[in-house]
Amino acid sequence: MPGLAPKKMLILNILEILKRHTDEDHPLTQKQIMDYLDRDDGMTVDRKAVKRNLAELMDAGYPVRTGSERTRSRVDTVTGDTDENIMYSDFYYEHEFSNGELRFLIDSLLFSKSIPSVQRKQLMKKLEGLSSEHFHAHVRHIHSAPRNQPENRQLFYTIEILDEAISKGKQVELTCCSYGTDKKLHPHPDNAGNISRQLVNPYQIVAANGRYYLVCNVDKYDNVAHYRVDRIADICLMDTAAKPKDQVKGLEHGLNLPKHMAEHLYMFPGESVRVKFRAKKYLLNDLMDWFGTDAEFSSETLIRSWQPTGGIILFAMWTSTTMWPITGSTALRIYV
């Protein structure tokens, strides 16, 4: 930072050294901090200066922690009084995110199918920067997903506009796109062959099956719609207010997001109906993964679930579609 005197720079350099080189498992002594100051910043300081600035950082509320402390006693030869000083050592910076939390966030990025690979790598780099250099060593083996997914570079801009529109209760105008055999997004045409623009009332952005979806209403209709956010292009924020939810079929009583998501596994629109299934009991793990505790089990055979043949169970779910990954299997059938 130009213009700062060396003494004022010292405390900032110490803070940066702690951020970059330390965590709870990798503290530094005052001597090691002095070595980093000399090597990286060309600053030669004594131990007292380092100690004083570390104390000032802790007093100011920065998350600078100490791994150990000991009390040193000294007897005054004149008065006979005993002075006790607490000596701190092994200093480290307590990062806002733990390594496990950062790893979870990075893994979530890797599993995302919506975020373009270039932006995914940029986000991963930023997340890595939230910890010390020791975290970088643990993520070197992580590789991005294969770059065979189509990409929409407008994704983050689209999300920003949608977020602003939802927060302000405004409409948006957008173009819906679909992929062609050239593997590129193409805007939907209107009846005249021109690019179709839609006036939309946005209500919520949700994540499902590794994709972002917009729960919304197309203004000229009265039903709920679900749009893939990565297939939206050229979005514009409008000044007009969004249609109230109570004027949209299915949202008359507001948007109950957990219920809505449970009944729209693949984000297909439409009214939810109660569907009964007959399934082999060994599918229970898959049923719980997909339907959670909302599945209602009504009967079962006495055959143990882990046996190859499996038992038989009956269960019911409120859903907008019977489409499900294993509905084509002989192990699962719609029960009438």
Sheet of most strands: 6 strands, antiparallel
Strand content: 25-35%
Termini Cα gap: 73 Å
Average pLDDT confidence is: 77
Order of helices and strands: HHHEEHHHHEEEEEEHEHEEE
> Please, how many helices?
9
What gyration radius follows from the Cα positions, in whole Å? Answer: 30 Å
From the helix content, strand content and strand pairing, which structural class follows? alpha+beta
Number of domains: 4
Helical coverage, percent range: 25-40%
Low-confidence stretches: 1-5, 302-328
Per DSSP E runs of 2 or more residues, the count of β-strands stands at 12
Based on Cα principal axes, name the global outline.
Answer: elongated
What does this structure look like?
It is built from nine helices and twelve strands. Strands 3, 4, 5, 6, 7 and 8 form a six-stranded antiparallel sheet that branches. It is 30% helix and 28% strand. The protein is elongated. The chain has four domains: 6-93, Orthogonal Bundle (Arc Repressor Mutant, subunit A); 99-138, no CATH class; 155-263, no CATH class; 273-334. Helix 1 (6-21) crosses helix 2 (30-41), helix 1 crosses helix 3 (47-59) and helix 4 runs antiparallel to helix 5. The chain is an alpha+beta fold and 336 residues long. Residues 1-5 and 302-328 have low confidence and may be disordered.
